[in-house]
Amino acid sequence: MKAAIIGATGYTGFELIKILLKHPKIQISSITSDTYAGTPYSALYPQLTEIFDKEIEPNDYEKVANNSDIVFLCLPHAASMEAANFFYQKGKMVIDLSADFRYSETTIYETTYKTKHKYPELCKEAAYGIPEIFKKDIQNSKLLGNPGCYPTSIIIPLFPLLKEGLINEEIIADSKSGVSGAGKKPTEKTHFCEVNDDFKPYGVLSHRHESEIDFILKKANANIDLVFTPHLLPITRGIESTIYTKSDKNIDILHQCLFDYYSNSPFVRIYKDGRIPAIKNVANTNYIDIALFKRGEKVVIISCIDNLVKGASGQAVQNMNIMLDFNETLGLL
Amino acid sequence: MKAAIIGATGYTGFELIKILLKHPKIQISSITSDTYAGTPYSALYPQLTEIFDKEIEPNDYEKVANNSDIVFLCLPHAASMEAANFFYQKGKMVIDLSADFRYSETTIYETTYKTKHKYPELCKEAAYGIPEIFKKDIQNSKLLGNPGCYPTSIIIPLFPLLKEGLINEEIIADSKSGVSGAGKKPTEKTHFCEVNDDFKPYGVLSHRHESEIDFILKKANANIDLVFTPHLLPITRGIESTIYTKSDKNIDILHQCLFDYYSNSPFVRIYKDGRIPAIKNVANTNYIDIALFKRGEKVVIISCIDNLVKGASGQAVQNMNIMLDFNETLGLL
Amino acid sequence: MKAAIIGATGYTGFELIKILLKHPKIQISSITSDTYAGTPYSALYPQLTEIFDKEIEPNDYEKVANNSDIVFLCLPHAASMEAANFFYQKGKMVIDLSADFRYSETTIYETTYKTKHKYPELCKEAAYGIPEIFKKDIQNSKLLGNPGCYPTSIIIPLFPLLKEGLINEEIIADSKSGVSGAGKKPTEKTHFCEVNDDFKPYGVLSHRHESEIDFILKKANANIDLVFTPHLLPITRGIESTIYTKSDKNIDILHQCLFDYYSNSPFVRIYKDGRIPAIKNVANTNYIDIALFKRGEKVVIISCIDNLVKGASGQAVQNMNIMLDFNETLGLL
Amino acid sequence: MKAAIIGATGYTGFELIKILLKHPKIQISSITSDTYAGTPYSALYPQLTEIFDKEIEPNDYEKVANNSDIVFLCLPHAASMEAANFFYQKGKMVIDLSADFRYSETTIYETTYKTKHKYPELCKEAAYGIPEIFKKDIQNSKLLGNPGCYPTSIIIPLFPLLKEGLINEEIIADSKSGVSGAGKKPTEKTHFCEVNDDFKPYGVLSHRHESEIDFILKKANANIDLVFTPHLLPITRGIESTIYTKSDKNIDILHQCLFDYYSNSPFVRIYKDGRIPAIKNVANTNYIDIALFKRGEKVVIISCIDNLVKGASGQAVQNMNIMLDFNETLGLL
């Protein structure tokens, strides 16, 4: 199968390329970027010198469509929907890494991203790409909204527990992310001297991922009541979420619920016996590591992912594998 | 006035020395450590070459007592109480940076630190050294229990709000600390390769500082119900605490409460207008920066301190200034 | 005395302000920046909240001149010479932190910085601000070219040895600098994700500081033959230079030369007995630490400074102290 | 083929296991450590949870020999020679990652490592494992001394140039390494708070790798005259070496020499056109990236490797592939 990557020069594009280069059934047919058209990809990412020197093409969608079966969109929010519609109408399989197809209800998208959605009907067709929860939707889909990084780290541990009614709907998620989550564009906030030796929250009570987490968790329990605080870690990659809720059930029941729900999920690792997940354990992998602690009614859940792999490009390839009926783990172990 | 530092070679001892060297009214009379006795201090901390080459003495308390007015104890928990009693009986002013005199009720201390307290009556005499809250106790005291770093970052923002009954007693404190909080002794957990690029919680639902926070906040509101989770940041110094609770009061009322309570506290800075505290802003200072956010009933409070300054040695000197009737900020700006 | 800082919002401006705020004889009268005019300084650097909230002014030089005795220029190369001339003609004491007045021979400046120098006669008046070597020039000067950071770390250890003919003129200087040396403006090269976990040389055989080092060392020995390689360290501040040359003299003679030459230099610390300088030992100080090693004819010299203090703003204040006949160390210990 | 790893719990053991787990023709039969015998490997390195939970065995060499074809020794210097002799006599293929078999002349080993070598005759049989230079020796060998990390980064760029007589024999190698090179054992020197924000040289004019580099480069040119200075970088992995020498040849001739010599070496990448190698470009890979700069007679060569991969375990697997007549790159791309 031939895969194209639109907007291939950011961190998610780079990660996607590194994964696809090791994927046994995929050939990268096109990589595009208007800014860098004409340059070999390895000039931007010298790590890939002699490994992937392919020339970056301009965003000529017609040409890309003629030359690919699957199209990954690594475009900014709002810019993505146009490209998605184009390739979808051409009959291509589309995996969108932006937020444009994560909400089947476009009103919430429009409020959150302050943009009119041009293709609300397409949103209804799109699957939400957490394979551990929505595998059937994904299998039957030709258009996929790949989840946000923070939402992935929060939804996976909570969904089964909420669905089974085992935990309280009042949830606090205190999340911390590496700097690559802010993208490759240089800004004051990503200057080395600003981030190094520092730590702080941002987007307090106003981050856009909160509505995505809320929208998806409502499918498990309509009464979900969420507070989400993201923080910026002085590391390149990885997310840790510490999640607080309550439960009147025994901890073994909560554990068992997670074990049962994810018994066939190769990338979910649930820790027991007091072992604590760490970003280091999942960095550069597609795993999500989860642990659950309880004292009285108080529940603390810890989860860790790599924001660029399970939180973006790795999960995108996992979704592609499912859409193409490949083994879910192909290219990801 | 002459000050001695017992156990001067750890990170809090080093910080204390750097502060006292710039203090206009204090002379460092003795620094002790059995391990390093006989070495010049600057051999351990070459930063102080030609600045503080004073020789480290063994722990001869009799000799130290003859040569000092104030004694700072930078000893491990449990080891400290013996020294504190000795110097206190000799009529010295004692500032203990361990946990041994933070609890006036020794049963809680004994449960938390799994050690019998030999001087419960002394605990009753000791002041708890958060000057912004317990200034009167401190002024009248000759023995002071200097607070833990995490507790300082959590108690200061919450105490007035709880005392005035403006927030709910159910509190979640999600705290993150730099590695110096774990001390100078090399361990697997503090190895550079383990900490660099990593982030994780530790002591989940079991950290010793939880009982200290709980014990002190009960003085503001007896019904306090706390969950506290510490995390290890890949930075050397600084603590950020993100604190969750609820309130049915307007955010202006909460803000006003903090402003009023801390109007005479030179080291408390309260941020408004959406500005967010950061560890960088307080690193190497004695400030605590606080911000408060609200949406519906949900309250999020952010606080930042330097764990070695406001969270340890800076606060110790602030307490000393008060005990000696000096200006509270002497040597600290 | 009243000091103005032109271009006060970069890292050297910030460092200068922090130092001057603690200087007992200086009052900061004006801080300017066209970009940030109208903002309180602490909005840019929240560390200084409640400490230095002074409003930033536009670059109205006439107004600044009326209100100050000393002017520090923290402007880009080439932009600085115009301001320097203006304030110098107004009779102000001028300390320029750019490269514009570091070369008394403007042809070398012009080749290196690819800019025509408009005031070559002023360059002849300017002192080169390494107080340890050019104190007399500085005392008699009203215009000072403050040295580059790399040159400071390399010239101080070499100058006496070259002048006394104790070492070979063939010199290799392998230097490594923290990221703040690249300035505050966000670029791809200073993005956290690019710098973190990385290390590399830059400007190999083509860095502009090479001509400055060469020009100044020629005053010690006209036959100097230098190779200089700068590297980018994943830290915020500090420079380490490892310098290679040869000598047929005994190491004690080399040591003695440095000790004698710098016997009255309070900020030069020379290590003996195999002790090795480290960036940590000089960070946030105005010290330069130096050690010298020898095996056969081979000489290895190590030096460390803080690039923003001894390599920029600290040295600027040291120079000001000398120009104003203050104690050299005022505000710097 | 079945491979055993003796002393599997350090950083080189961990790296070796990660590589071998992806190697299509190798099965890991035994992993040993007296300290951790009985524990699953993933308890030490939770990254490998559910991937490699194999139990660590004690150092029962007889049992290991019965169960393996190849033995990797990740033991400390001196401890390794005994194990190497044992497995070699049993007819196993032995790859030793310590220094014990890097020198065919044991007197130099004994002086450098201050240890008597018990098996000098075995040293004569051992190949030195830089495949790019000594491939034939390696192909015919059953015992291999895997090179040191610094030597790998310095020998590969210099060997062809020295052999062809294109550069001067006077060499200065200024090298910088990440902290993993110091091993997993916690020490003061590897404490996060000591390394973070710091940078410094160590072992100046006295590091053990100097004699290894010297010994091997003498095979290219007997008159080699080397100064080597290692430095500690605040990063986990990677080595950069900046190498200084002279040449009266045109830079194109030097470049051509390297291109020709390494035309069949899949892991050597030579940069041209002013591109500069960086640790980031080779981290987690088996590549060595090299660039060469020249001005007049002065030559500056830059090389970068990952100290744990090309500098240790990756090169060990590359050597194994050659010894077993596999494709050199198997498991390494």
Oligomer, anyone? homotetramer
Structural class by secondary-structure content of chain A = alpha/beta
Radius of gyration of chain A: 19 Å
CATH superfamily of the largest domain in chain A: Dihydrodipicolinate Reductase, domain 2
CATH architecture of the largest domain in chain A: 2-Layer Sandwich
CATH topology of the largest domain in chain A: Dihydrodipicolinate Reductase, domain 2
Main β sheet profile of chain A: 7 strands, mixed
Strand order of the largest sheet of chain A: 8-9-7-10-13-12-11
Highest CATH level, the class of the largest domain in chain A: Alpha Beta
| Terminal Cα span of chain A | 20 Å
- How many distinct folded domains of chain A? 2
Q: Which chain pair has the greatest contact?
A: A-B, 38 and 38 residues
- Unreliable sequence segments of chain A: none
Give the overall form of chain A.
globular
Task: List the total number of helices of chain A.
Answer: 13
Series of H and E elements of chain A: EHEHHEHEHHEHEHEHEHEEHEHEEH
Give an overview in words:
- Four copies of one chain form a homotetramer.
- Chain A has helices at residues 11-21, 41-44, 61-66, 79-89, 106-113, 120-125, 131-139, 149-163, 192-195, 209-217, 251-261, 279-282, 309-323, and strands at residues 2-6, 27-32, 70-73, 93-96, 127-128, 143-145, 170-177, 200-201, 225-232, 239-246, 268-271, 288-295, 298-305.
- Chain A folds into two domains: 2-125, 3-Layer(aba) Sandwich (Rossmann fold); 149-307, Dihydrodipicolinate Reductase, domain 2 (2-Layer Sandwich), CATH 3.30.360.10.
- The model of chain A has no long low-confidence stretch (mean pLDDT 97).
- Helix content of chain A is 34%, strand content 21%.
- Chain A starts with a strand and ends in a 10-residue tail after the last helix.
- By secondary structure, the first copy, chain A, is of the alpha/beta class.
- Chain A is globular and about 60 Å long.
- A seven-stranded mixed sheet of chain A has the order 8-9-7-10-13-12-11.
- The first copy, chain A, contains 13 helices and 13 strands.
- The longest helix of chain A has 15 residues, at 149-163.
- Chains in contact: A-B, A-C, A-D, B-C, B-D, C-D.
- Chain A binds chain B through residues 172, 174, 176, 194, 197-202, 204-205, 227, 229, 231, 233-238, 240, 242, 244, 276-280, 283, 291, 293-295, 298, 300, 302, 304, and chain B through 172, 174, 176, 194, 197-202, 204-205, 227, 229, 231, 233-238, 240, 242, 244, 276-280, 283, 291, 293-295, 298, 300, 302, 304.
- Chains A, B, C, D: Pfam families: Semialdhyde_dh, Semialdhyde_dhC_1.
- Chains A, B, C, D: Belongs to the NAGSA dehydrogenase family. Type 1 subfamily.
- Chains A, B, C, D: It is an enzyme of class 1 (oxidoreductase).
